[in-house]
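Final report, Chapter 2: Outcomes

The project's central promise was a pipeline that accepts a single protein chain and returns its three-dimensional structure in a standardized token representation, suitable for archiving and comparison. That pipeline is now operational. To close this chapter, we reproduce one record exactly as it appears in the project archive, with the input sequence first and the structure output second.
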Amino acid sequence: MKFFLRISIFTIVGLSALQAVASDTYSVTLEKSRLVINNKKESELRVTNPTPRPVLIQSRVYSEDKVAPAPFKVVPPLFKLDALDTSILRVIKVSEISAVDRESMYWLCVKAIPPTLGEEEQADSLQVGVKFSVSRCVKVFYRPQALVGMKTKNLFEKVSWSRVNDGVLIKNNSPYYLNFSALEISGVKVSEVFYVPPFEEKKIVLADPISKSDVLWSLLNDFGEAEHYTSKLD
């Protein structure tokens, strides 16, 4: 009984180790962290396969909730991308967008699907592991005609900060999304990464009372770069 038990444990551990070695993760590299479409019908995004194996690239645009479909299509929606190769995705608007006085946000999600090996290839390569496919999603911002020509460099002037009972209220008085990359209130860093939609507000709950009125914050611009600001609480 003892001898059998030892053999069983060895077999399980050996199989797990083989699975860990044989498993692969398939992903893609996207050239941008966001797409900005200024009242145009389409935009482009470069996608790269960083792995030494070919993959299938599957892409789709979703609404802000990452569930509902969006008024955009991706061309091509599904294609083969060779090892270490690069291609271009076209994101095309296919229907009208109701918001005409503010920015709208969507998600472009790109997935690398691992190739399927035949039975003989699987036997030859001893692939008993699991292949993982990873989706990469980037934000897509659509700006209607009313925003064309407007400058976003003074966007910080449209943000107001006020104290509330258990934290701070951020008001976005602009027609653009505020994409925060860092926030520090009264010397306390807020770890949550978030955004505030146009003409909306967000409450930041703080565990401790606010002792100072200083706010240090950073927004991501159209190129995904952080711009830093300092404000005072009202």
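Archive annotation: The first strand starts at residue 24 and ends at 26.
This record, like all others produced under the grant, will remain available to the consortium after the project formally closes.
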